[in-house]
Amino acid sequence: MPTDEQAPSRMDWVPDIEDRAKPVYLAIADAIGDDIRAGRLVPGQRLPPQRTLAERIGIDFTTVSRAYGEARDRGLVDARVGQGTFVRANVRPGARPGPAGTMTSPTLSPATTGPSAAHPGTAAGSLVDMTMNQPPLPESQDLLQRMHQGMAGVASGLALPDLLHYPEAGGPREERAAGARWLRDRLPNLPVERVLVTPGTQGALLALLTTLARPGDTVCAEALTYPGFRAVAAQLGLRVVGVPMDADGIDPDALRAVLAQHRPKALYCIPTFHNPTTATMPVERRAAVVAAARDHGVPIIEDDIYGTLPEDSPPPLAAFAPEITFHIAGLAKCVSPMLRVAYVAVPDARQALRVSAAQRGTTLMASPLAAAIARRWIEDGTAAAIRDGIRAEAMERRALAESLLPPGSAVTKREAFHLWLGLPESWTRGEFAAHLRARGIAAVTADAFATTSDVPQALRVCLGAPASREDTRRVLHVLAEALDLIPAAAGVVI
């Protein structure tokens, strides 16, 4: 293998993934293998840093991280702590690296077998993907049957013309009315004219940022924020400035300083069960954040995707300042990721027209079938029952985490299904993530969320990903064991 001095230093490689009908992270890993075989990537060549490649092809950091992890598992690349990711020597596509640089088949190597190493709930060699913050499946079989019957009822009850045409931008009135009904506990007396239906939170963010900002403008967000927001901002050519946080979310004094210095076009934040830290702003903090934004004339994009999960949630920011707040209530976390539907409460009818026009020019519409299922479930109470089931299961899994993980190692909330895992000084986040992956668990490091250079040694762990509570227990045992190790004892080179 060439030395670092001999290896090609060019890092302008871009994967060809346009015509690959598979998840993007797998398409990138396939492209790495294809380009190695074609000689476009050579042994020792350094791949672009993950953040750089994500920005270059307009996707989020997490996807690139998964792609490089997949390529590493296939034996195509090596990751060197503090140096980067490099094409391996003597690559045999389909193989993966074993102990001491040897190559093994694409299953768990002997060094990573055993009760803590295999997939903590299914067949050996598979992966518990805890990188996506998905809700746990409710335990109730009756509820699952109710969901299935509801979907079948919608499909059989809709006339084909209702599905085989483009609805009006922002959604037809009956779908907006369903959104107003879903939001009534959070925003009472919300007029239907102020509600829009979008294809998920991501679609809402794209429409809102397109409305509120132009390429080259600045927007601000928490110092740690949802990677999907960062991805949309990068795609639109917007600069993201991070605002310092504490245990209660955005620091209002720091926010005022950022607003005065940078004059952003919008503030994006997640006030309830913040992603990734689970911080929830108390009422006083919400009032202070809203006051800062109002004083500086900055509109707020409030991502309230977790807002209905707590049994006792503070009022949303939109309740404090409806005239400047764009409130997004997605269904993916509190009902189902299957429903790529979000309801957006906008300040007034004029803004509804502007956002609808932006949606028409970007994502166009929510799926009529998904919106119809959401409407049916909201109207007959199924959506609320699913939300309650998710909440109950999240509480059970959170209790498991509290009982099994070292005290003080993780931050979460009672009804949240993700936790923010702080690492002891012996571990770096990259080393810890690699250690978990070798044992069949994928988690996201703080890098994916950072909007400043101050990146904590922490990971987000999704407790909703394992298929059952027993699988969750096994994953938590692996995490607890890893936290008690030091990297050298865990077989990690430092």
UniProtKB/TrEMBL annotation:
Annotated ranges, domain HTH gntR-type: 22-90
Organism superkingdom: Bacteria
Start and end residues of each stretch annotated as Disordered: 89-128
InterPro entries: Aminotransferase_I/II_large (IPR004839), HTH_trans_reg/aminotransferase (IPR051446), PyrdxlP-dep_Trfase (IPR015424), PyrdxlP-dep_Trfase_major (IPR015421), PyrdxlP-dep_Trfase_small (IPR015422), Tscrpt_reg_HTH_GntR (IPR000524), WH-like_DNA-bd_sf (IPR036388), WH_DNA-bd_sf (IPR036390)
An example molecular function term from Gene Ontology annotations: DNA binding
Polar residues compositional bias, start-end: 102-115
Magnesium as UniProt keyword: no
Keywords (A to Z) from UniProt: DNA-binding, Pyridoxal phosphate, Transcription, Transcription regulation
Pfam families tied to this protein: Aminotran_1_2, GntR
SUPFAM superfamilies xrefs: PLP-dependent transferases, Winged helix' DNA-binding domain
UniProt record similarity statement: In the C-terminal section; belongs to the class-I pyridoxal-phosphate-dependent aminotransferase family.
PANTHER family the UniProt entry points to: HTH-TYPE TRANSCRIPTIONAL REGULATORY PROTEIN GABR
The name this protein goes by in its record: DNA-binding transcriptional MocR family regulator
Taxonomic path: Bacteria, Pseudomonadati, Pseudomonadota, Alphaproteobacteria, Rhodospirillales
